[in-house]
């Protein structure tokens, strides 16, 4: 069993998607992924939320994360599947506690958010209202988040590379190839 840092470095250098840019930011990336995976392995479900511009990413992740038959299913769901009326009823911050109560009841308070997008949307406020989320934030530096630039011409490719590395790391952890200790 390899430690997560060594394994991640090897994958970043030799993966077919060539995410070499992510190697430069491994000290930001590895702790975030480790924390997210520890939460999943501790029985928490992950609720994926994106801003409107990245809904395609949310749809892709949710439709592909459990596509493989080679591993157990992972509890990653989209906010749209859990709360389809979010964009119709979620017009102001006063509804955030109601949505949180709903999710607390559904998941017995054993969930966390994976948020991808700008931090100034109502969807972001729902996720940022919780501690210890898996955050991929655009154009703003927040503590315990991975910052991306929305003006980057390769941003969609970078998101897909990050997802690929996350998924490979998840699989390696499931099969005991990496240690999350």
Structural summary, described in words:
The protein has 181 residues and is α/β, with parallel strands linked by helices. It is 49% helix and 17% strand. It has 9 helices and 7 strands. It has helices at residues 4-14, 20-23, 26-41, 55-64, 79-82, 86-89, 96-107, 122-128, 155-174; strands at residues 2-3, 45-50, 76-78, 111-118, 134-138, 145-148, 178-179. It has a 5-stranded parallel sheet, sandwiched between helices. It is globular and about 45 Å long. The mean pLDDT is 91.
Q: Can you lay out the helices and strands and say which pair or pack?
A:
Layout: E1 2-3, H1 4-14, H2 20-23, H3 26-41, E2 45-50, H4 55-64, E3 76-78, H5 79-82, H6 86-89, H7 96-107, E4 111-118, H8 122-128, E5 134-138, E6 145-148, H9 155-174, E7 178-179
Question: How many beta-strand runs?
Answer: 7
Strand content: 15-25%
Query: How would you spell out the order of helices and strands?
Result: EHHHEHEHHHEHEEHE
| C-alpha geometry | globular
Rg, rounded, reads 16 Å
The helicity comes to 40-55%
Contiguous low-pLDDT stretches (5 residues minimum) are: none
Assign the structural class, choosing from mainly alpha, mainly beta, alpha/beta, alpha+beta, or little secondary structure.
alpha/beta
**Structure annotation, total helices:** 9
Main β-sheet, spatial strand arrangement: 3-2-4-5-6
Largest sheet descriptor: 5 strands, parallel
**Roughly what is the average pLDDT, rounded to an integer?**
91
Amino-to-carboxy terminus distance: 11 Å
């Amino acid at each position: 069993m390899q430690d997560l840092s060594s394994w991640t470095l090897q994958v970043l250098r030799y993966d077919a998607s060539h995410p070499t840019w992510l190697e430069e930011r491994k000290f930001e990336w590895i702790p975030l992924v480790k924390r997210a995976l520890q939460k999943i392995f501790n029985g928490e479900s992950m609720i994926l939320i994106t801003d409107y511009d990245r809904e395609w990413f949310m749809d892709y992740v949710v439709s592909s994360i459990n596509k493989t038959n080679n591993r157990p299913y992972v509890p990653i769901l989209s906010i749209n599947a859990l709360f389809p009326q979010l964009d119709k009823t979620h017009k102001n911050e006063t509804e955030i506690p109601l949505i949180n109560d709903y999710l607390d009841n559904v998941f017995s308070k054993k969930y966390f958010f994976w948020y991808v997008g700008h931090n100034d949307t109502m969807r972001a406020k729902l996720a940022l209202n919780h501690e210890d989320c898996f955050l991929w934030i655009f154009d703003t530096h927040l503590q315990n988040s991975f910052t991306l630039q929305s003006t980057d011409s390769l941003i969609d490719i970078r998101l897909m590379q990050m997802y690929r590395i996350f998924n490979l790391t998840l699989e390696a952890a499931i099969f005991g190839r990496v240690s999350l200790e």
